[in-house]
Amino acid sequence: MPTARLSTGKTVAPLRPPRMHTLRGVQIRPTSFHPFPVSEELVLAEGVSIEASRVVLGDRLSYELPTGDLYAPPVESLPAALEPTWLAAEPLLPPGTGPAMGSRFPARPAGAGDAGLTDPAGEAGEAANLWELTFPLLEREGWEMEAGRQGEPQLRAYQVEAAQALVAQEALLLADDPGTGKTAAACVALRALYQRGWARRSLVICLEHELRHWSRHLARWAPALRVLSVRGDRMQRAQRWGQRAHVYLIGHEALADDILHGTLEPEDLGFDIAVMDDALLLADFPEPVRTAFDRLRARRRWALAGSRPEDPEEWEAIFTFVLGNRTQVRRALAAGEMAKAFEASLLRRTRAQLEAQLPAHSVSQAWIALTREDASAYDESLAEERHRLSQLGDGAAQDDLTASYQRLADTAALGRAGRLGAKAQAVVDLLADITAAGHKAIVVTRPEGRGQERLRTALDPFGVVVLSSLRDEPELREDVETFLQRPSWHVLLADLETLERAGPLRGMAYLIHFASDWNPARCRQSESWLLERTGAGASLSVYEFLTLGTVEERLHRLLAERGWPSDSLPEGASPQDVAGALTLKDWMEGVFEVEVVVRQERVPAPRPAISTGMLPGTDSLRTNLMDLPPAGLLDGVAQWVRALGFDEVETTRAADDAGGELTARRTVEGKTECVLVRCVRSEKNVGVAEAKGLLQAIEPRAEWLGGYLVTTSDFTSACKKAADQSSGRLGLVSGAELWRHLHIQGLV
């Protein structure tokens, strides 16, 4: 080193070169020189500038170097400075109803997809570095804040109590009623333990379709935690297990598969916290799945359920996980001391106890990924609808678009015939929680004949009542009153319009949209109507089940881009506002992904001297239907009638060249309902005489709900007017609609 000459002209000896220590395994850019002395202190800085006395960690945090020997890497000494005694004098949680640990980290900016599609933990990125994993350890001020910043989420008082109980106990079953916010309380408790340095690696086990639900809640209530969803096939899951994170999210079956097949090594089965959501379902899992969970090692074990266990199988399955000792649990069950043995590890509050603190109206969206079989059925239906819409081009009307959307949404929801689709299974799982807690729920579906019967069959174990759109208002009110008085009936199945005609629905706290209106403002409007009629001080928990990768997702994104997000509509939004935000091009290209073809003006063909009574362009369709043998046509009509829910179909007039006639019956709540179905084979449009003849045939018998007039052609204007004036007792099915039903059934 060269000598230095002062202004006096004297030469001094060079300084000894400084000894710089490199932090092992950590990249810090740029290199910083730090003056002495340096205080031993953790500092949280929001700015991005580098201060002289700090080593900057990422773009928000900084760690001041400790005094003493710099040759001891401060990174290695960091955990030692964060033992539980570091915060021993502070309470578990802020008292009262204050915010859940305010954060100095800026909130993640909200985007259009945040309303239900974007999964903050969904994508596998690069592995977390050490600095990312220390973020929650540096959040101290939040414990002392009495009021959160504007826009920060707030816990209700009973949620604070739940989070306190989770932090205080190493084994706990939180069994509050569904819809009371157990997930938020668990996320806050997780964050509290990480802030104290008591946890570094946690596991959350839930249903597959609830991974996004947990991801969004953790991003909201514990933004400093790095969360990773372990999903995909076995190889993809193995890759994600290898990445570093604070919280790993995984489905029940996927975790059991990874344990049983060695995807998770024995040394990787240890966690500081293990959380089991939907714990009541544990008793329904196969024995190998439950025993696989026994291999998990965790110092803290929490379970979340919608009610307390009832039968011994549920007690054993849940508390074997919570206590981590199957022998101890079985000994308590054999002695009949379940309540005494497990009461200390159980926190249960009912909805009635918490009613005063619950929000009047809450909406939760669940996005369901289709199974391979469901996706295959949906793709087939999508190809058919795209072809139909492309033929209509710019001539497509709103009714055409809505009908296509509903058919595709129903296909995605129900999957193929003979099996329960993923969306329907998710509704069944939710209803298992709701009914176990002793509550009743409304399930909203489409009007009769669009998959309602298949859903009703799946919900039969819960005790289901279907509100028929063919019944008048006094009859509907009587049906609702009977439903409310029967303790064994828990599910009311209806479409929105019928529900609104049914009158007051006292004490109904849960509403599930399975297959509802595409317009979210229409749904919110109906929910407000229902809330007004449930009584003063009531609260309503609304669940919307939607499918990923379908027209439902594309419509959701499109509405969010237009400023009408389905889960957070602006106050006062009307159905007309939302409908007016979408153009024909939005529907065709944004929802159905069909190019809008502008049809060329055509010169009309010369009109024949004598009218044939046929609509233009239907000649080939009529020919196809007329080519069917009379018996085959009537059998197809009979299958369509059975799809409407009428399980007894009898031929009252044999099939011939003129058509045929059927009588259909079904039993609803002990009452027999009948309809008369008349099939007319004709190349000309059916006139009003046929309509009046059918109405006269059903008039003498009061138990007949009405009749269907089915034809291979179409109907005259007078015939349609007669049906409109029949008060719903006459339904018309044209040749085009009949052909579509027969095509779906595979008959043509």
Task: Describe the protein's architecture and organization.
This protein has 748 residues and is of the alpha/beta class. A 7-stranded parallel beta sheet has the order 8-9-7-10-11-6-12. Helix 6 links the parallel strand 8 and strand 9. Helix 3 packs across helix 4 and helix 7 packs across helix 8. The protein is elongated and about 80 Å long. It starts with a strand and ends with a helix.
Per-chain topology:
Layout: E1 4-5, E2 11-12, E3 42-44, E4 54-57, E5 61-64, H1 74-77, H2 130-134, H3 157-168, E6 171-174, H4 182-195, E7 202-206, H5 211-221, E8 227-229, H6 234-241, E9 247-251, H7 252-260, E10 270-276, H8 287-293, E11 297-304, H9 312-323, H10 326-334, H11 338-342, E12 346-347, H12 351-354, E13 361-368, H13 372-392, H14 398-414, H15 422-436, E14 441-444, H16 452-459, E15 464-466, H17 473-485, E16 491-494, H18 496-500, E17 510-513, H19 520-532, E18 540-547, H20 551-561, H21 575-580, H22 584-591, H23 619-627, H24 630-643, E19 648-656, E20 659-668, E21 671-680, H25 688-698, E22 704-711, H26 717-724, E23 730-733, H27 735-744
Parallel strand pairs: 6-11, 6-12, 7-9, 7-10, 8-9, 10-11, 13-18, 14-16, 14-17, 15-16, 17-18, 21-22, 22-23
Antiparallel strand pairs: 1-2, 3-5, 4-5, 19-20, 20-21
Helix pairs in contact: 3-4, 4-5, 7-8, 9-10, 13-14, 20-22, 25-26
